[in-house]
Amino acid sequence: MPPMKDARLGASTFFASALPHDICGSNGLPLTPNSIKILGRFQILKTVSHPRLCRYVDISRGKHERLIVVAEHYERSLEDFQRAGKPVSQDKVLQVAYEILEGLEFMNKHGMMHRALAPRNVLMDCRGNVKLAKFGLYHMTNHGADVDFPIGYPSYLAPEVIAKGPSRPSDCSHGELPRPSGPKVDVWSLGILLFELCVGRRLLQSFDISERLKFILTLGCMDDIVTVLAEEHGCLDVIKELPENVLTLLRKCLTFQPSRRPTPSELLKDPALQEVSHLYTPFRKPVSLFSSSLRCAYLELPEDISELCQDEGEEYLAERSIEEVYHLWCLAGGDLEKELTNKEIIQSKPPICTLPNFLLEDGECFGQGRDRSFLLDDTTITLSLCQLKNRLKDVTGEAYYPLLDDEQSSLPQSNSSSELSAAVALPLVIRERDTEYQLLRIVLFDRLLQAYPYKKNQVWKEARVDIPPLLRGLTWAALLGIEGDIQAKYDGIDKDTPIPTDRQIEVDIPRCHQYDELLSSPQGHMKFRRVLKAWVVSHPDLVYWQGLDSLCAPFLYLNFNNEALAYACMSAFIPKYLYNFFLKDNSHVIQEYLTVFSQMIAFHDPELSNHLNEIGFIPDLYAIPWFLTMFTHVFPLHKIFHLWDTLLLGNSSFPFCIGVAILQQLRDRLLANGFNECILLFSDLPEIDIERCVRESINLFCWTPKSATYRQHAQPPKVAGDNNGFGKTPSYYSSDYQDLPKTDLSREPLKLSELKAESSPRISAEDLIDLCELSGSGHCKAPTKKTKSSKPKILAVDIRSSEDFSRGHIPGSINIPYSTAFGPDGELVQCPATSTLQSFRGRVIVIVSHAVMRAATFAAHLVKVNYPRVCILDGGINKMKFTGLLTVPSPQI
Amino acid sequence: MKKSKVKVSSSEKEFTFEFRAGRQRCVLRVPLQFPARSPVHEEVRDLHGRLMLLHRMPCFVEEDLKNALTSFIQRETLEDYEREAEEALQRLTTGEVDIDMLANTWAKAYSETTLEHARPEEPSWDEDFANVYHELIHSPASDTLLNLEHNYFLSISELISERDMELKKLQERQAAEMDSVMQELGKSLSDQDVNAVASQHFDAQQVLENKWANELKQVTAIQKQEYQEWVIKLHQDLQNPNNSTINEEIKVMPSQLTEPPDPGARLFEEQRQLEESFTIHLGAQLKTMHNLRLVRADVLDFCKHRRHGSSGVKLRRLQTALSLYSTSLCGLVLLVDNRVNSYSGIKRDFATVSKECTDFHFLLLEEQLEVVQQVVLYARAQRSSKQRDQPEVPRNGGNEDKAKNLERNPSNILPGEFYISRHSNLSDVHVVFHLCVDDNVRSGNITARDPAIMGLRNILKVCCTHDITTITVPLLLVHDMSEEMTIPWCLKRAELVFKCVKGFMMEMASWDGGISRTVQFLVPQSEHAPGRMEPSVNQKPSPAIAVHPLCPSGSGQ
């Protein structure tokens, strides 16, 4: 994204036209408000970036269909020349003409017309270069159909535009919508504009609007429009003195017949502009992160590197992109509506004064005068950056250019680094609103992502702290390991040909996260459809299950202007976390998943598990939508973002912990209620504190031995070498259990019925060795060293007979023979060993025996008496026998 | 691709692409739809991918095909634009479209929608006063304003009690007279004489009432004028810092509202205590929070000022005054019959209450109703002219008797329609929705499609567009209980209204982005206390929200 330089942030506002009351869409759902339609169409404008166009930054909806648009802005415009009232030099005229045409040509390439070209929308930056403003208004309002006011200014309208009439939605409700204007209408407007510059006065000012328009239409009968215009305004002598090329240019622009008028791109190549055209180099679009071409292909470094550092000055903020500055401006307390109200652009009457008198049964209002505050005032105001600069005055220059090669220090070593490390400890919600902190995070992530995939490891590391919301889309892509030319891949998928799933997709989309403005806009629906279809078509072995739409939503929201990236992220996410969930017959996968989940509930919260089992409230009744959509079906987007920020860092068993954490938040209500109330409670899940949920699920995750969540239907290990050298160093928790090399000591697949029979999870011998820190054996294949504190504390309970125990057992284990452990009522019989067990309550308890069956029963008993964290050694003691790790106690007793 | 509702004339054009593969010459012909649905470059990307895939094009023509497609689409689109434009101009030269008409439509479009070309606004006294008042009430002067308002209120109250006294006296005297006349009936006096006396009494009463009504009206008008002038002057003086007399005055004026609470008021407060509040969350994923309150009270309790209030009264008055010109208004739904006046029943009671205190901001209720009456007539005229224009569109089939009713008396309103009055002089309410209902609502079985319910929906919609954040709704759609309203009837009705209002509130969230609202449900004072309704209320916060269940799609089945 280009730096902001001397650009300002400008805000302007307008109203979308109100919908007719009580009309339903063809699908029976209420119509989308026009403001949402505009909001959806606006999004693409954010990507239109050209040196001659003012970048669009943001749009926001206010009350009563108000829209506020934020865009790049400059204080100076061509109106300043008009005010001076003097003819402009012909060099300047040619320069302006060429630069406007450059902008128009670029817009036309993106299928957009300006339609509102007028001096006030031709801004000048500090070097006097043209910047076209409001170029997207015609596009975002669906060619004027979604607003009440006509687009364009009367004096500058091309004759064919006038001939078609104003496109008021009320006028064409029963007829055909007038076709949008083509690129040539802007050329006419340009002609008028240049004419005004040449003669130094405004045209047609003395007429009222209808006279003006009639005059323009009568120009069709004239031979020489330029002369007629000059005569009309008494400036024929000025026109006559103009050099030939300027006159030709004017004549070409002011051609009445559209078919004979050139398009902007034709005009750019016109000999009349030859004089100035060689001064300009064609604009080259910067290469995006994921593309097949070399990102540094056009990088030119000056001979002397120090030149780069010279011209900067003190304005570090000006070197950031306008999107970042606007994001920070908002964080620093910027309020668009307030700014506009202060400048009296928004003038609202007290609502009690504008109430209607009478309403019919169908909702039509009467007796309500037209409120003047709803009229269009297209003034753009400059947003002051003072407040933001004040907030950031203590940020040193170094902070804007953090060094990345130092793997040790994550945060820039500035004066404020101590403050920042303190900031890291603050709640996420506060960090996300802290201007200074966000600036540093954005700068850091921006640099890291530019260095992606080379700096992939550091992205992972920093993402563990937090992810700046502004760069979440790209960061997630980096975490999911997206690489390569995703656009070409996406383009190669046929998203148009009808498929049988279409009908279902069509039904689901208008019901998916529709509270969100973006996703409920028609553009959002279209993109949803395309991404979902692309996924279905490109995964022939899988099918569309309802829920896939919810899963797509966060990716689409974050990458709204980049469907290819949304598709790529979704395609990378599903095999990692939802492997084979979208098989046509997925029951074995889901069943295994849910069984492991109920084991996890028993493992972490035996009391809750006992209660839920007692009332028969099994996970099948509520947890399928949780896991099938990775919680996107149950949470609103802003919560999903925080949840997934962590989820993406964890492995595929992390969702179990999230599930348990959610249950624990509702623990009291679940424990207090019976089956019916629980069903009712979950049919409309109550508010969940998502930050707490994340914190607790991390905690639960750390207490869970890796092999406890082993699933035979999980994603099979990836082929080695997949990581092509940039691979992250796998840490104990972020890598999948399935990814680890398989040995004799790993867990073995179980039949579903067997798995279901056991209430506690099994763990592998490998894990046991690792967690007990039984060293000295070459068998220990723990992949990395980890700090002691991050590992759960463990206690092995040997339930074999004491004779067997004395013949050899796991070091540190205690012996509670199965036969004598429990009393008649299922309570633990008091003995020294059980009191040890009691005193270690809270540790992970591993039941070791000959036969797993017995261990399972024993574990079930322990769970019954509310012992948390009980698990079973897979394969029993036999697995350990060959490791040589068993010890024989010294014969003291 | 979904067809857009507005038809755009589309056409098919054939795209031809030739290339050589070895010695073979191949030609690809594809019909393409115009106008393109998306911008050229996107369209090309998609089409290109599809063509490569479907026609198994060799990869070496990839770039050529892309270029050819781009230029083809660009050329054809441009041609379309040109043809369209020429046609439009053609229509002008042939006279198919009138130039003057066209120019006038444009001029109208500009002058109606843009500030630049709109006629300058004539200054409005109401709005200026609104601004001045809003500023003052949010300043230290608010106390003075309230005191003044209260004093005016007291003098009106005195007047009213005087009137009541005099009326009472007259009635007593007349009753005595009547008694004596009755005794003489059949002796010295005939029926005719009695009738004459009765009508004489009636006339006397009318005269007295009229006299008082006039006096009240006059006093009110004087108060209103004085008040408004004073407010404007106060504002001017406050703007001029040199003139500090008013400031002094503000400081000097003692707070007169701290009167000892009288027992009657406390009794009233206690009665109002029968209320219960609930917080609900609506929405499938993103939840919006709203407050519900179930209140057992008389509907006019929200309008009446306590004459000698405790300190709470002043607070309430301040609260109402502060929010009068703000964006959090309070509304009340009043159920009325089909005539726009204030002669009978609840309408009359409401009118009486609204006269108890001078409205310093808005027109008198009668004047507001006159305006409404005009608007109703205008609306009927609009509707019928529209219906004449489009006779093929039948409006809500089966409404013939309704239409007949209207023809008979176009100034009446229909069930489900409502008019709105504005007040600054009621205790808890700024806006009153007078919703027309018929006798159906007293019967047991109304449905969600009942006009009264649709009226509620429209009321909530107006709340949405006009920032009315607190609305009071009669839960049972009646203001007083009668014999046939049994407990099952109440439960059924309450459930219906709850369900519908919940639906409307969820709908509202999509209109206004989910602003938190308070809805008060009013239960008439009778033996049916809110406590008995509780079961149905508790169902409201947690009904299953219709989200799509997860089940496999029909793909490939």
UniProtKB/TrEMBL annotation, chain A:
Occurrences of domain Protein kinase (ranges): 1-273
Domain Rab-GAP TBC: 466-651
Family: Belongs to the protein kinase superfamily.
Role noted for this protein: Component of the FERRY complex (Five-subunit Endosomal Rab5 and RNA/ribosome intermediary). The FERRY complex directly interacts with mRNAs and RAB5A, and functions as a RAB5A effector involved in the localization and the distribution of specific mRNAs most likely by mediating their endosomal transport. The complex recruits mRNAs and ribosomes to early endosomes through direct mRNA-interaction. Also involved in the modulation of mTOR signaling and expression of mTOR complex components. Involved in the control of actin-cytoskeleton organization.
Subcellular location as annotated: Cytoplasm, Cytoskeleton, Spindle; Early endosome; Midbody
Predominant subcellular localization, coarse grouping: cytoplasm
Keywords assigned by UniProt, alphabetized: Cytoplasm, Cytoskeleton, Endosome
Protein name as annotated: TBC domain-containing protein kinase-like protein
Species of the source: Scleropages formosus
GO terms for biological process, alphabetical: heart development
Keyword Cytoplasm: yes
One GO location term (cellular component): nucleus
Automatic annotation (TrEMBL), chain B:
Bias (Basic and acidic residues) ranges: 386-407
InterPro entries: Fy-3
One Pfam entry name: Fy-3
Stretch list, region Disordered: 386-409, 530-557
GO cellular component, one term: cytoplasm
Biological process (GO), any one: regulation of mast cell degranulation
Protein name: FERRY endosomal RAB5 effector complex subunit 3
